Amino acid sequence: MTTSGSDADSGAETRPGKVTIYDVARRAGVSIATVSHVLNRPERVSAATRRKVLEAVDHFDFVPKAVAVSRARRGAGRIGVIAPFTAYGSYQPRLLGLLGALASHPIEVVVFDCGEPVGAESPALASLPMTGQLDGLVVMGPPVSDDVVARIVRRSLPTVLVDTTHPALDRVLVDDRAGGRLIGEHLVARGDRRIAFVHELPDVVLASTAGELRLQGCREALTAAAVDDWTIELIRVDNSLAGGRAAAAEIRGRGEPPDCIVAHHDTLAAGVWQGLTAGGWRMPGDVGLIGYDGSDLAEALGITTVGQPFRRTGVEAVGLLLSRLEGYAGPPREVMLQPEFVPGATS
Predict the structure, then answer these.
(1) Domain at 15, CATH number
(2) At what angle do helices 266-278 and 241-252 cross, to 10 degrees?
(3) In the list 74, 158, 214, 304, which could disulfide-bond 344, CB 3.0-4.6 Å?
(4) What one-character DSSP code corresponds to residue 14?
(5) Rounded to whole angstroms, how far apart are CA atoms 271 and 256?
């Protein structure tokens, strides 16, 4: 329904502090329901429409009315944690580390799942800083674009990144290049020359992924050892046990298998293990296999892997975030943790 004669309908400039969801909707050329979806359920809205609405929200620096009221609340603070929890099991121990570190603090934790593959844009993350419902934010995994950082800074939302990076924000990382070098050094010691790297990547990535950094480190180790005639073949699969089994089937169908298979993470490695053992292959007799993460699954199957201090990343993130909430306003900080090689029965 349209009401004539209002400032909004006349096209007059909206007065500071008087911006409404109707102003945002009109500027973006969408309904107020669409604006609400972008702020609360962004996965329901197309990327092009999300961009229009986010630009309008940024233009007005819009704050939802209910949020403006909630800013007067006192007592426990509220932080959000967003990660692809349902896509990657490795984010659960990170969250457990964070929750353990916050156990003695009067802070409510709200968990948001984004199911996008590694390196892909998250619609939920793009909208989350504008909801105004959080006192702090921890982003685990998805890349953070300059536009999202600008919204975070403009709204003075203390934010810490884990397993992703941006120079303008505090961050906790595990050195993936170092992990790749550990693998490369092991391959050199084994005398492996033909390596297959099983990984998953989205069609579009916004930042260098952990897998790319691990590959870089592996290549550095092989080069530093002056190994001749080494090759690394990339095998792209779905991010699942089934994807690992598909890679194994492809390798089993070849006349000459690689010397060693390196998987981007332990779940893919487990799928490869299933596929190879089902075909009667022995590891490391017929081919070597190395995973990544140091998960319980790798331990149970005896897969050689590289362990990551997942829980500690959550603990370190809490320390950085609490300091921001308590008033630290200094430059962005980086905590870089180190992985460790975990020998197994497959390599």
Answers:
(1) 1.10.260.40
(2) 50
(3) 304
(4) P
(5) 20
Q: Which residues of 121-149 are buried (b: 16+ CB within 10 A; e: fewer)?
A: bbbbbbbbbbbbbbbbbbbbbbbbbeebb
- Please indicate, yes or no, whether residues 56 and 139 belong to a single structural domain of this protein: no
Range of the domain at 52: 7-60
pTM: 0.77
Q: Which DSSP string do the residues of 188-218 spell out, in sequence order?
A: HHHT--EEEEEE---SS-SS--HHHHHHHHH
Residue 158 to residue 137: CA distance in whole angstroms = 6
CA 176: distance to chain centroid?
Answer: 14
Q: For 230-289, how does the pLDDT look when each residue is reduced to its tens digit (9 = 90+)?
A: 999 999 999 899 999 999 999 999 889 999 999 999 999 999 999 999 999 999 999 999
Chain-centre distance for alpha carbon 52? 25
| pLDDT tens, position by position, 27-68 | 878 776 777 777 777 777 787 887 787 777 777 777 665 554
> Can you tell me the distance from the alpha carbon of 304 to that of 301, in angstroms, rounded to the nearest whole number?
9
Phi then psi for 234, rounded to 5 degrees?
-95, 125
Clarify whether residues 202 and 279 are in a common domain: yes
| 100/164 same-domain check | yes
